[in-house]
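User: Please fill in residues for this 298-position structure.
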């Protein structure tokens, strides 16, 4: 999974890990006729994944389950996080791999196969039309059509949804998150929307607010002076929240950079712990602990 993909994946996992946000998202993207068949009061997130190790290199999944409204049978609602900012005509093949990976996981768990509703969330800037696996094949002869696997999936294309419709969502944190994702690859538009995005959430869990703030500013491309100017234009209560979050994020990045530098020096085996500690302006015990961790991982 690329660094670009990981950035979006981390954000999606953070917000969709909140059951209320996930529930409101499903109510936003699923057609009403599908919602009518589901009992959302039984919604729960599964702790594991349906994606095989090979598939995890390119895609990730978030799995929620709920029962059908008129029965006790569970339906697997699968949110497939692709984070593509470009058109990929072979996505239906990846979706198919994902579905069958899920069915195999169910069987491996000793379950009878149950339905999976895959949802593809797309937030790229290029126009992308919904295509099925059958669309990849150029009109095979009638005798061969039966050999083309086919299935449906929910194609949630943020680019096709007006900003006003997103902002009108009942869950204001979800609205802010979808706007941030929609314009994550359109930096100029994102910059102009940051004040609106940060004002939308209102009273939201701190960890969710932090995820939204970091994700928005990381994608904005703003320099330090621009970020400061933008923050000072916000209401006082928003200013304090944003500043605290960004300071924590910057400090975390600084610590990670220092740790990686120390690891590299240790692996080169050219300096003692005392020399590394002096060069990196850290304690000898800090270097020794990292050396122990590296040895334990081998």
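Assistant: Residues filled in for all 298 positions:
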């Amino acid at each position: 999974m690329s660094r670009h993909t990981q950035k979006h994946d981390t954000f999606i996992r953070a917000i969709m890990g909140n059951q209320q946000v996930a529930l409101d998202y499903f109510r936003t993207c699923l057609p009403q006729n599908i919602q009518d068949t589901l009992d959302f009061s039984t919604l729960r997130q599964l702790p594991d994944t349906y994606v095989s190790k090979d598939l995890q290199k390119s895609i990730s999944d978030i799995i929620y389950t709920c029962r059908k409204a008129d029965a006790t049978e569970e339906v697997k609602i699968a949110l497939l996080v692709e984070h593509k900012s470009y058109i990929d005509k072979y996505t239906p093949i990846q979706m198919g791999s994902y579905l069958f990976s899920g069915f195999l996981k169910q069987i491996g768990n000793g379950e009878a196969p149950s339905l999976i509703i895959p949802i593809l969330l797309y937030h790229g800037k290029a126009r992308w039309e919904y295509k099925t696996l059958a669309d990849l094949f150029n009109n095979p002869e009638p005798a061969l059509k039966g050999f083309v696997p086919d299935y449906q999936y929910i194609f949630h294309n943020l680019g096709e949804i007006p900003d006003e419709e997103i902002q009108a969502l009942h869950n204001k944190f979800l609205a802010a998150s979808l706007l941030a994702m929609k314009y994550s690859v359109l930096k100029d538009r994102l910059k102009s929307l940051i004040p609106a995005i940060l004002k939308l959430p209102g009273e939201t869990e701190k960890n969710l607010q932090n995820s939204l703030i970091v994700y928005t500013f990381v994608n904005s491309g703003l320099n330090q002076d621009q970020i400061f100017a933008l923050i000072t234009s916000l209401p006082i209560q928003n200013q304090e929240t944003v500043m605290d979050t960004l300071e924590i994020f910057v400090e975390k990045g600084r610590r990670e950079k220092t740790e990686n530098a120390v690891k590299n020096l240790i692996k080169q085996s050219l300096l003692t712990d005392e020399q590394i500690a002096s060069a990196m302006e850290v304690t000898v015990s800090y270097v020794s602990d990292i050396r122990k961790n590296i040895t334990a991982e081998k």
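For context: Strands lie at 38-45, 60-68, 74-81, 116-122, 154-157.
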